[in-house]
Amino acid sequence: MAEAQEFSDEDVQETVDDGPSLPPLWDIPRIVGIELTNFLSYKKAHLELSDFTAIVGPNASGKSNAVKAFRLLRDIPTYGLPVALARHGGFDQLRHRSNGKPNDPAIRLNFVFEGAPPSFYEISLGSVSGKRYRVKRERAMVNYGERGESVSFDSDGSRLSASERLAGPADDLRSAIAPGQSALSTGSFASYVVQNTLRSIQTIEINPALVGALQDPSSTDEFDPAGGNTTSVFEALTHEERTRVTEHLSAVVPGIVRIEPQNFADKQTLAFYQHSPSGNRKFLAKQMSDGTLRAFAIMLAMTQKTRPQLIVIEEPEVAIHLGALQSLVEILKSASSATQVLITTHSADIIDEVPVDSLRVVWSDQDQSQLAVVSEHTRSVLRTGMITPGALLRADALDPDRVA
Ligand SMILES: Nc1ncnc2c1ncn2[C@@H]1O[C@H](COP(=O)(O)OP(=O)(O)O)[C@@H](O)[C@H]1O
Ligand SMILES: [Mg+2]
């Protein structure tokens, strides 16, 4: 009795309810999909991602265009919207054209924090005069925590309103945005979360010549998507991580036993030690085959210090021979429980290794890209085990789930 009186009402309140949790500024959510509207060859498409997803389709069907949407998203917080668009050839190039008429593009990224309802970020652009653009709408809703917490912002391209207080006067939840700029840099909680999420998407387009060249020492915060800083990124790995990359590479290129950075004046490269019956031989990166350098750079990207949430790899089959390719896909699949992987491919050998639920089929229909999962009929054929997805692809019979 006497004890209870020592607590004030405030104390009791505090122990009962410690308030909503802060937005997860540093946690990275799972990317669940992307929705494209009037973007490049897509009029309308919805790509859902699993841990490991493979987009398969013939040439010019729209595989690379889907990848460009991810790269554009990542570029927005990295370079700002005007430069991000310029790096993709400008707003006008991105607009979907059917019958010569340009349409206004929009991209929506769906993501989810564990245990919370779905979240999204969405940006749609329109033209001002001729080829100039404006942001028509940009918004995000971030759901997190176990108590239904949520932060959001919404902008019409010139005014932003956010769910929580921005820097500035305590009661000012609105702020102005300069023409053509993204609302992501306005500092609301929701925009921080979206920025970090977009930055955690990495598209990898390895240029073997850059991996093989003498490289300048670089910051290792970020893996250069073309492979231009592989030596520095490798050097920053722990002993265990180096061993893992070396083992992965030896599954693709038998005999690789050690990889070591090597300096030449102010430049650097990697040395690969290969075991052969006649003893160990050392090769500098530039002496290795293009396929080996590509495979190495992809494995390094999967092991880098700053682990991306989603890695997008275009056509891993290029320059990599069949046996090595199967090992590479196995490694990508097993790593995808930690880092989501999206690949594009037209290799029947790759899709033989991919679960049918992870396949997305793209095709071109009247100059529009279409994207869908594999049809139920085709799945039931595959379930019999009498034929593989690759064999169906070779026979041009990997049917997508077409919606009328
Ligand atoms: N703005 C656009 N509007 C409509 N179609 C486009 C646009 N930009 C590119 N395309 C079409 O996209 C196709 C190339 O798609 P891409 O994704 O590169 O194919 P792939 O599957 O080979 O990677 C080309 O046929 C091109 O005509
Ligand atoms: Mg392509």
Automatic annotation (TrEMBL):
Q: Which domain of life is it from?
A: Bacteria
InterPro entries recorded for this chain?
Answer: ATPase_AAA_core (IPR003959), P-loop_NTPase (IPR027417), RecF-like (IPR014555)
The protein's name in its UniProt record:
AAA family ATPase
As one GO molecular function, the record gives: ATP hydrolysis activity
Give the GO biological process terms. Answer: DNA synthesis involved in DNA repair; double-strand break repair; SOS response
Compositionally biased spans, kind Acidic residues: 1-17
Keyword Protein biosynthesis carried by entry: no
